[in-house]
């Protein structure tokens, strides 16, 4: 079995030994990734997270839309352009997060939770921090990033992200990668309504910059 290890390397000069202090380890290779993907997909399917009856309908005319994506790049511009065309009055609120790397899955999940906290004054953030998250009440969330390799998109195949989407009281739209890319987040997202034109959200998939009401740290 092949694995990919992330960590810090050091050299013991007297013996010439190379040491790696591992911080994270996962299976490597497309075969291993596909197996992990299929195993998680089956697990979540068995729990009913993909069932149509549990998916939330998207509001036909959202007034405020929360966006969870990178704070760098063109995504928020693409999202705002698409939403201005489809829903001109809607206000877009960005929560910038890492969308790639070891810290990305938890950051994405925390951002989804933080947006839900806005909608529920009695709720606590997922990590139970006491800071108050301020901003307008969102009607739905768009969670995504631009295209890339399987490794680039992998944060959206992590269980913590899937469960954050499933637990969200707000409907969540997954806009990850290109139209041909399918992630676990796509399978858990909210139900599409006829009001939402097919393919309308397919352009909302690049990284972002723009106004931010709050930032998770």
Please provide a brief summary of the model:
This protein folds into 2 domains: 3-46, no CATH class; 56-188, Rossmann fold. It is 29% helix and 20% strand. It is built from 6 helices and 6 strands; from the N terminus they run ββαβαβαβααβα.
**Which CATH class of the largest domain applies here?**
Alpha Beta
Strand order of the largest sheet: 4-3-5-6
> How many separate helices?
6
Mean pLDDT: 78
Based on the coordinates given, report the CATH architecture of the largest domain: 3-Layer(aba) Sandwich
Categorize the overall geometry.
Answer: globular
Can you tell me the number of structural domains? 2
- What Rg, in angstroms, do the CA atoms define? 19 Å
- How many β-strand stretches? 6
Which series of helices and strands comes N to C?
Answer: EEHEHEHEHHEH
Helix content: 25-40%
Distance between the termini: 35 Å
- Low-confidence sequence ranges: 122-133, 193-217
| CATH fold type of the largest domain | Rossmann fold
What percentage of the residues does DSSP assign to strands (E)? 15-25%
Helix and strand composition category: alpha/beta
The largest sheet is: 4 strands, parallel
């Amino acid at each position: 079995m092949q694995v990919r290890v992330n960590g810090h390397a050091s050299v013991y000069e007297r013996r010439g030994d190379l040491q790696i202090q591992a911080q994270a380890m996962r299976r490597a290779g497309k075969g291993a990734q596909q197996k992990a993907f299929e195993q998680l997909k089956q697990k979540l399917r068995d729990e009913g997270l993909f069932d149509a009856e549990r998916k939330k309908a998207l509001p036909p005319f959202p007034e405020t839309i929360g966006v969870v994506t990178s704070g760098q790049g063109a995504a928020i511009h693409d999202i705002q352009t698409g939403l201005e065309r489809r829903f001109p009055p809607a206000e877009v609120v960005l929560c910038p997060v890492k969308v790639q790397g070891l810290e990305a899955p938890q950051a994405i999940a925390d951002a989804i939770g933080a947006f839900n906290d806005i909608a529920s004054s009695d709720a606590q953030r997922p990590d139970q921090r006491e800071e108050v998250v301020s901003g307008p009440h969102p009607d739905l969330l768009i969670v995504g990033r631009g295209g890339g390799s399987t490794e680039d998109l992998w944060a959206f195949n992590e269980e913590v992200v899937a469960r954050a989407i499933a637990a969200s009281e707000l409907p969540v739209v997954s806009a990850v990668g290109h139209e041909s890319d399918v992630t676990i987040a796509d399978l858990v997202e909210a139900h599409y309504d006829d009001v939402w034109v097919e393919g309308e959200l397919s352009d909302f998939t690049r990284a972002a910059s723009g106004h931010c009401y709050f930032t998770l740290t």
